[in-house]
Automatic annotation (TrEMBL):
Belongs to the DegT/DnrJ/EryC1 family. SUPFAM superfamilies: PLP-dependent transferases. GO terms for biological process: polysaccharide biosynthetic process. This is dTDP-4-amino-4,6-dideoxygalactose transaminase. InterPro entries: DegT/StrS_aminotransferase (IPR000653), PyrdxlP-dep_Trfase (IPR015424), PyrdxlP-dep_Trfase_major (IPR015421). Transmembrane segments: none annotated. Keywords: Pyridoxal phosphate. GO terms for molecular function: pyridoxal phosphate binding; transaminase activity. It comes from the Archaea.
């Protein structure tokens, strides 16, 4: 079974890591702080820079909860259109900018640098707005010697999307003036004690590993869950934001201090290439990023298809549990004709797991069994 996320296991941690994630980050950034979630980090990063009533421009192709910190700060979230290759539609950005625009967000999707960034940055500069680099997907990606997330005035990265940890994110302040205005809230930093959430996370990881390796138990659990009727609904965007208003857990900090970023990047890249070999020759699916430049650590393997449901069903039948469409768009954007491309992309882009605990041979086995 290929799961969506890596499971926590002490065997992947090492006491004497020559290079761990914190020391890796220190090489590239002089000013970063840990948080429980990227959304909490974004809230803190912006709080000292904005006044209620101002607006922030964000791409339409974005998960619904990302704008919650903006609402919390009394800001308007103004969505701009994106292009087929996920680059910002600069004409649309410019059309939506006004005197109340305080910041504009770019996104490094799926571990890759934002296409069209240079032009985007000069536009943001011209209008004297802050540039927020949403780097939730790309904590370990280095593009031409620069760590992704450090190109904006402020940047936000989610560590929990790459590591087997209960929570964890980073706020980068890449500009001295921004750093001076940062007044860290109670969500900044690392919790002092291990908590119940840490224990629950470890327990869930043990159960998940058991289910992954034991087909009989997994089927019984699946049958049991199916017999309980429709699954529990996803909490609202604001509930998810509120849940992330916390410092990073002690367990997350421990994993960050005992994980080799190079090992993670190498493993994810190998798995990316394994999916690419399977997908590239097929006519019904299109590889979103054909090139995986050196230094890039993919969060997932994104592909585009006009038959997403069929592809997902085939993948599930072949043992891929963690593939899905991305993202769940805001209700302002979804099916709004103004943002038709974002809606189409959210239906047609599928993300496949490449995490560091998948053996590339498991992906190759899937490739041998897929009908397309
Ligand atoms: C593009 C993007 N930005 C920001 C976030 C928010 O990150 P976090 O869940 O750590 O708050 C997410 C999370 O899904 C995301 O996908």
């Amino acid at each position: 079974m290929i799961s969506e996320h890596p499971s926590f296991s002490a065997r992947f941690l090492s006491e004497s890591q020559p290079l761990h994630i914190t020391s890796f980050l220190e090489r590239f950034s002089a000013d970063f702080s840990f948080y429980g979630s990227g959304k909490a980090a974004l809230s803190d990063g912006l709080a000292g820079l904005v006044d209620p009533g101002e607006n922030v421009l964000v791409p339409a192709y974005l998960p619904d909860a990302v704008v919650e910190p903006l609402f919390d700060l009394g800001l308007e979230a103004r969505y701009y259109r994106i292009q087929e290759n996920l680059a910002p539609d600069l004409a649309d950005v410019e059309r939506r900018l006004d005197d109340e625009t305080v910041a504009v967000m770019s996104v490094n999707y799926f571990g890759f640098p934002q296409p069209g960034l240079a032009e985007f940055m000069s536009l943001v500069d011209e209008y004297e707005c802050y540039h927020i680099a949403d780097n939730a997907h790309s904590p370990l990606s280095v593009d031409n010697g620069t760590l992704l997330g450090t190109r904006g005035d402020l940047g936000v990265t989610s560590l929990w999307k790459l590591l087997p940890i209960p929570d964890g994110a980073i706020l980068y302040c890449n500009d001295d003036a921004v750093a001076e205005r940062l007044d860290p809230s109670s969500f900044a930093g690392v919790r002092e004690q291990f908590g119940t959430d840490d224990c629950l996370f470890v327990l869930k990881s043990i159960i998940a590993s058991l289910l992954e390796t034991n087909e009989t138990i997994r089927r019984s659990v699946d049958d049991f869950v199916a017999s309980r009727g429709p699954s529990i609904s996803v909490p609202s965007p604001s509930a998810r934001y509120e849940a992330g208003k916390t410092p990073m857990s002690k367990l997350s900090a421990y994993v960050v201090e005992h994980t080799d970023p190079q090992m993670i990047r190498d493993a994810r890249r190998e798995n990316y290439f394994a999916w690419q070999r399977i997908v590239e020759p097929r006519s019904d699916v299109e590889v979103l990023y054909e090139s995986l430049p050196e230094g890039i650590c993919p969060q997932v393997f994104p592909l585009r298809t006009s038959i997403p449901q069929r592809v997902l069903e085939d993948l599930e039948r072949c043992g891929v549990d963690g593939a899905h469409t991305w993202p769940r768009l805001s209700s302002t954007v979804f099916e709004n004709p103004e943002y038709d491309r974002a809606t189409t992309l959210s239906r047609e882009i599928l993300v496949l797991p490449v995490h560091q605990h998948i053996d590339p041979s498991a992906i190759e086995d899937v490739g041998d069994r897929l009908p397309w």
